[in-house]
């Protein structure tokens, strides 16, 4: 056990042979270091590339039963769900594959992500090494790691969680029949659209969203970051049992970009999230 990482329990022997147990106080550490302990890692962390923070590589660690879970964004827009196993001096995180990937993993046709996270109290950081592991447990881990620091407080909000459903762009964002045809024909939403004003939206079954007395709105994120003017945007009207969630989005940059919609309902003054929809679009 590393004394600089975990609080240490001392066993004291009394004069009369009695045994008592006391817990040493935690070290007096700066506020930004308060989560750099094996039993307190649940926080948002940002990767450091030398002295420079890299928000495209980040991880949200959270309590999951008796151990940890995590959402890992590995430099792209993909969210990787990890399950943690706390060991003596580190936490081993392993990807939890789902759907088709889970079946391919079981057959040995694809590997999953594995990472090891070690607290570094003296640096207020988490040392991390990342690689792959196959279905037989054979690892390929890069020895060259990097540090994660506590995510700084800032005006924009970064997203971490995986989505529950797909968004649509272009005509499919405006017309439910077009959206349904894309899914029927291709099993996914078409990602392509010209840059500039991008129609973004989806159609939901109104009865599944919430009671008629509730109100409905959405927060929107571009490339994983909150957009101030696209917060609490009201949802559209219900037609033929479907509610239209839609916005014209100004996206002047070409290339791959990530659109996210967090859908909410407010009932009796309480705002609750319904789900998350997203799409990695190709703008040209």
Which helices and strands, and how do they pair?
Elements lengths: L8 E5 L5 E5 L20 E6 L2 E13 L2 E8 L4 E8 L4 E5 L3 H8 L5 E9 L4 E9 L5 E3 L4 E5 L14 E2 L1 E2 L1 H4 L1 H11 L5 E2 L2 E10 H4 L5 E8 L2 E2 L6 E2 L3 E2 L2 E10 L3 E13 L2 E14 L1
Parallel strand pairs: 12-22, 14-22
Antiparallel strand pairs: 1-2, 3-4, 3-11, 4-5, 5-6, 6-7, 7-8, 8-9, 9-10, 9-11, 13-15, 15-20, 16-17, 16-18, 16-21, 19-20, 21-22
How many strands, which pairing sense, and closed or not: the largest β-sheet? 8 strands, antiparallel, barrel
Mind telling me the C-alpha Rg?
Answer: 23 Å
Low-pLDDT runs of 5+ residues are 1-20
- Span from first to last CA? 54 Å
- CATH H-level superfamily title of the largest domain: Avidin-like
What is the average of the pLDDT values? 90
Shape: globular
**Assigned CATH class of the largest domain:** Mainly Beta
Relative helix content: under 10%
Q: State the assembly state of the protein chains.
A: single chain
Number of helices: 4
In CATH, the architecture of the largest domain is: Beta Barrel
- Encode the helix/strand succession as letters: EEEEEEEHEEEEEEHHEEHEEEEEEE
The structural domain count equals 2
Strand content: over 45%
**What do we call the CATH topology of the largest domain?**
Lipocalin
Short description:
With 284 residues, the protein is mainly β. 10% of the residues lie in helices and 50% in strands.
Description:
This protein has 284 residues and is mainly β. The chain has two domains: 29-150, Avidin-like (Lipocalin), CATH 2.40.128; 165-283, Immunoglobulins (Immunoglobulin-like), CATH 2.60.40. It has four helices and 22 strands. It is globular. The chain starts with 8 loop residues before the first strand and ends with a strand.
């Amino acid at each position: 056990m590393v004394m600089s990482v975990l609080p240490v329990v001392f066993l004291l022997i009394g004069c009369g042979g009695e045994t008592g147990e006391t817990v040493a106080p935690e070290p007096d550490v700066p506020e930004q270091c308060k989560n750099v302990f094996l039993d307190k890692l649940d926080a948002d962390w940002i990767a450091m590339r030398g002295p420079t923070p890299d928000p495209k590589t980040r991880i949200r660690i959270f309590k999951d039963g008796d151990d940890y879970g995590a959402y890992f964004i590995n430099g792209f827009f993909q969210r990787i769900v990890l399950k943690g196993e706390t060991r003596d001096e580190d936490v081993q995180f392993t990807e939890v594959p789902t759907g088709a990937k889970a079946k391919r993993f079981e057959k040995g046709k694809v590997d999953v992500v594995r990472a090891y996270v070690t607290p570094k109290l003296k640096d207020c950081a988490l040392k991390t090494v990342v690689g792959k592991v196959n279905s037989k447990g054979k690892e390929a881990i890069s020895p060259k790691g990097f540090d994660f620091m506590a995510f700084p407080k800032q005006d924009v909000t970064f997203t971490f969680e995986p989505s529950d459903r797909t968004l649509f762009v272009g005509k499919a964002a405006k017309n439910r029949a077009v959206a349904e045809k894309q899914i029927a024909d291709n099993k996914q939403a078409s990602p392509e659209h010209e840059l500039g004003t991008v129609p973004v939206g989806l159609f939901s079954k109104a009865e599944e969203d919430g009671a008629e007395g509730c109100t409905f709105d959405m927060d929107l994120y571009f490339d994983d970051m909150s957009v101030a003017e696209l917060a609490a945007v009201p949802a559209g009207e219900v037609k033929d049992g479907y509610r239209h969630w839609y916005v014209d989005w100004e996206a002047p940059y070409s290339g791959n970009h990530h659109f996210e919609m967090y859908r909410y309902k407010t009932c009796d003054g309480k705002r609750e999230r319904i789900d998350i929809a997203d799409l990695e679009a190709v703008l040209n």
